[in-house]
Design brief:
The structure holds two protein chains of two kinds.
Chain A lengths: L1 H11 L1 H15 L3 E2 H11 L8 H13 L3 E7 L5 E7 L1 H25 L5
Chain B lengths: L2 H30 L9 H40 L1 H30 L10 E10 L2 E5 L3 H10 L2 E14 L6 E8 L3 H5 L5 E2 L4 H6 L5 E4 L1 H8 L9 E4 L2 E8 L12 E4 L10 E6 L5 H10 L1 H7 L1 H4 L3 E6 H6 L2 H33 L1 H9 L4 H34 L5 H7 L8 H25 L5 H10 L4 H36 L10 E7 L3 H4 L3 H17 L5 E3 L10 E6 L11 E7 L1 H7 L3 E4 L13 E5 H7 L9 E4 L9 E7 L11 E5 L11 E7 L3 H15 L6 E5 H7 L2 H35 L1 H9 L4 H38 L6 H28 L3 H6 L1
Helix pairs in contact in B: 1-2, 2-14, 3-12, 3-14, 3-16, 12-16, 12-18, 12-25, 12-27, 13-17, 14-16, 18-25, 18-27, 18-28, 20-23, 25-28, 27-28
Classes of the chains: A alpha+beta, B alpha+beta.
Chain lengths: 118, 864
Amino acid sequence: MARQSREAADRGALLRGTLESMVLRVLADGPDHGYGIGARIERALDHATPIEDGSLYPALYRLERRGLIQGSWGRSEANRRARFYALTPKGRAALARRTREWAAFARAVSRLLTGASR
Amino acid sequence: MTPWRRRSRAREDDLRRDVRDELTFSAEMRAKDGRRTGPPPAELEHQLVRLARSRDRHGRVRRLLSELRFDLVDTVRRLRRAPAFALGTIAIVAIGLGANSAVFSVANTAFLRPLPFADAARLVRVQEFSQLDGTIRWVDGSGASLEAMQRTGAFAYAAALNPVWTALVGQGETERISAGAVTAGWNAALGVPAQLGRWFTADEEAAGDGAGVALISDRLWHARYGGRTDVLGATLAFDGGVRTIVGVLPPGYRFPYDADAWWPTRVQPGVRGLFLAGRLAPGVSFEDANQRLAALGPGLLRDYPAVMHGNTPGLRPIREILIGDEGRVVFVLSWAVAVLLLIVASNVTMLFIARMVARERELAVRAALGCGRARQVRHLVTEAVVIFAAGGAIGLALAAVAGRALVVLVPHVLVEQTSMASLSIDWRVLGVTAALALGCGVVVGVVAAWRAPGVDLTDALRASARAGSSASSRRALGALVVAELALAAVSISTALTVAGGLRQLEGRDVGFRTDDLVTWHVELSTPRLRSGGAHLALADRIAERLAPVAGPAGVGMSTVNPLCCGDWGSQMSVEGHPVTAETANVVNWRLVTPSFFRALGLRTLAGRVFDEHDVVGSEPVVVIDERFARRYFPGQRAVDARVKRGPTDSPNPWMRVVGVVSAVEDSGPYSETWYLPYRQRPDAPSTEDLYMWIRTPDVARTFADVRAGMREVDPSLPVLELRTMEDIKQTALGQRRHAAVAAGAFGAAGGLLALCGVYALVAFVVTREQRDMGVRLALGATASGVLRHVIARLVRLGAAGVLVGVVVARAVEPRVVTAMAAQPLRFWPVALVMAAALLAAAAAAAWVPARRILTLDPMRALGD
């Protein structure tokens, strides 16, 4: 119940929700630390939008609180102490669902904007 | 700062450091990539710390839940791999918890479930009592007491019910029914609304009998009117007159007895045989009301000496009335099932420890792989809780199935007067069973974890290296031997006390032989049977008609059945014995025919019993029982002494004692009894009942003969409760008999389980000591010496257990005896036999496995 209403609120906050979905998608390719996740998203978006720490880290903490990702301390390539995030099974399921929803949403928006209604 | 605060402060610092590290790392990486950089904004850090805090809290809960789920799944999986262990433990837990649920459902109905009255806690019954020989004796109420209740001002409502035995006439066959005439406020005191129509109006209550209205029972409504609603306003012809039906009472309205009609009445102070009920006024406590009523007692004795018979009114809580002494029996059963549950719990604990020992290596490996001690304990507790939950569920189902049979354990007055005949498994029973299951599961799990080897890492590794027994588990197993034998002793001893005490009650001497004595009674209260001595003529016709059936002793007749019914008493005076204020000289009052003494077989100890010359107009005579003679004429000649009803100066005639007969057990309220000739006082109110007896060699045939004969004498007169006196004697024990069977079953189950437990435990302990025995043999001890040593140790442990058990049983025994109102058995001989049997069983349990090991080659015993 609570989760569903939270999910609905997330969908409302389109941007934040989109960022969370992108984090999940990136982590589906493998665990990474916060900076790496941000960098990979930026690269995937062709550097069209910078990903600010101010939105990325709260998103990561929220995702972890909900058990969609799991963080743990490890060592970076430069042997620095860094927190690595990995997708949990629950996160993987959430990613699949969000992907479906996004596709349907995008199709609908596209249909509307391009006037391709019947 | 408390340690807890310090820890939470430290955790907070860690969080802050982690957040800062993460953000710094990000900034550094950014700088390395040659991108713009700056210190992270302070508010982001705050926000993240806050998020991290809730993230960690969520994480902990999630981890706990997932571990719990894992434990549950793992437990079920492992139990399925060990079906014998699982089924065995679940079965004994089901027995233990099922017995507890069942007995608790009885206690629930008797003590906890709400009574079917509005605010039953403020509802009281008023009865009259005398204190004779140190015991309080309660009798019914009188109009004088009702008046006193109203005068106290302690009752919002005070009312009386006058029992009536009547008949419905007209509309086909005459139907005899019991009814209740109630005074104003009866309904308000009880607070049970009619299911159809209404109770009496104030005007009708004021008019009393003259109002011509009645309420009928649900039974009568369906039987006579098919449950139609147009019954309201219909008229019903009773043999006392026609009444208009104004309402129908709900099914199950049976307080204080199962009547079919109620109508308003008014009572005079002189009326006896009333059922008095009162609802305490707001703000008045039970004790307060009781004191106010007691203060009026002396005045009542002065104003109504003949009505009060030396008794004064007092209050009794309604639940106490409904439960009576039978409530105590429920406590005995609770004790018996509690002991049973303890036995079950210790058996399961023992099985757990034994299983842990067998899995020592596995546990050590788990520990080595990082399964922490706390985790291991939780694991064991989960396993125990799963087993107790499964057993509890099965036990609850068993209790629900057995519920119908267990109703016999509910105090019978409660069942009869409130219709609370079903033992529903309600939320209280569910809650108590769940709590017991959870509690036992946790305790068993914790004790097993605490005392089993293997949970502690170093201990386990060492133990597995030695393949021997660790000192702590050895002590734990020894303690379990003591506990099991103690519980077995308590369980068996309680069962013996209950069952043995009851056997003595069943076989008790009531003063006459009961097995071949047939009895029945008739009610002679209707006007047709009362007018002009019609009841005497009827009694004569019955005696004459049944003379061939009864044989030379004849048909014995009396107004009271001494073993069950009627509590007629009489205040009396003995010539030359001044009555003091403290001694209410009251005796059981029975009007009897001459054949009564012959049919029951009472011995004449002095003088004579009645004969056909003791009739109205002849010299007033009385026969007293030996208790009467002992009390008032100790060491003197009782025959020819003179006694009279009421005080010495009452207008009643002096009566001459003509004989003394042997005493009989008497359910009446007084210890002494006198007998008056039935034909000398034909109009006494007690002659409304006529009880009859025939002694016969062929009970079944006599039943048939009596039925046939009575039908011939008066076909419309119902023959009530035709049975043997033995039946009545045993029925009076009713609930106690059932309780004894139940307690015996619990005791036997407990004893058996405990013995199985002891046997398994001892066998296990001996097997564990195999290495020890091997060492002794290798060092040159003789096999028999080692055997003696092992057995001696177990017998020492067993003796300690039995001793503890016997001491506990001895401490509890008097209570059990009182609760069952039974004769105490001779405790010590029984206890000694039991103790010897238990010790022998323990020794045998040790001997069998020890023997097996000793026949092995010493080197193999050592190496295994």
